[in-house]
Design a protein that fits this description.
It contains 15 helices and six strands. By secondary structure, the protein is an alpha+beta fold.
Length: about 325
Amino acid sequence: MILRMPDYCSDFRCTAERCTDNCCIGWEIDIDDSTLDYYRSVSGEFGRRLKDNISTVETASFKLLNNDRCPFLNNRNLCDIYTELGEEHLCQICTDHPRYFEWFKGVKEGGTGLGCEESARIIITQDKKFLFTETVIPDDDCEDYSDVLYDFLYKARENIINHLQDRNLSVDERIADVLSYAEELQYRLDNGEYGTFKIAKDMERELPDEEKLLSFFSELEPLDPKRPEYLKHCFSLADDVKKNRNAFRNAVPDMERYLENIAVYFIWRYFMKGVFNEEFYSYVFLMAASVTVIRYLYECFYLENGTLTVKRRYQNSQGVLKGNRVFR
C-alpha cells in the first residue's frame, strides 16, 4: 500500500508548550479500544489517576476539567501521559493529530490539517508548488468504490491543483475557473460521462458571497464560544472592509500566495472523498467558501489593527476550521 502525503508534512513538529491554541483544551478526546485496555492495566498512583479521569459513557474519553482542559495537560501545557508512559501509549487521536487520512484501494492519502496552529503556519507559508511524497506501508482496508470514478476524480484533482497554482491569474480568477470546471464535471458524472477536459477561463463566474458566508459561519455550533460574536462583529465591518481593499492588497503583497496554498489544501484534503458518494462539486465550493471567509477575516484584522502579521495569518485560517464543529 502507498502512503501519499504533501511533502511539507515532514516539516511538522508539535510545538507543545509553545502552542498558543493547545489541542488539549476545548476538544473532546476519545480513547480507542486498544489504548483503553492498556490504560486499565496501568497500576499504581498514575493508574488510579487514569481510571478516575476516563469516562466510558457511550464512547471512552477523558473527563475534561471545568476549564475544558484535558486532565493530563499539566501547568506547563505538557502531557503527563506522554512523560509518564511514553509517546507510544498516547491514544490514537493524540498520536495522529493534526494528521488526517483517507483510505483508497492500495493508497492511503493524508496530510496535516489547518486546525493546528503550527501545521497552519507550515501550509500557508509554503513558497513552492504543491508536491507529495509516496512511501510503502502495510496494507489496510477501505470502503468499496468505482475504479473508473477514482481515475476520473484523480485526473480532475490534478487539473484543479495545477490551475490553482497558475500564478499568471489572480486567485479569484483561478477559483472562479475551478468552480465552473467542477460544476461541469459534476453534471457530466451525474449523466454517466467520465471524460475530463481542460479548465477554461470563466470571466462570468461569481465567487461565493462573503457576507452570506460570514452570517452562515456565525450560526454554526462553535468550539470556541467567542467565535460567533467575532464573526458577527466582522460582518458589521463589511462596508469599511470593501473600501479598504486596495490598501490591504498593497500592504500584504504575499496574500495571493497564502490564499493559493489554502485553496490547494482544501482540494487535496476533501476532493477525493467524492469517490464514496459521487459528489465532489460541494467540496470545491467548500474550498471557495473557505478562502473567501479567511481572506475577509484577514481584511477585518488589517482594517482594525493597521497590520497583519504572519502569525495572525495562519491563526485566522486555523480559526475558521477549529472555530466550528462542522469541520471536525
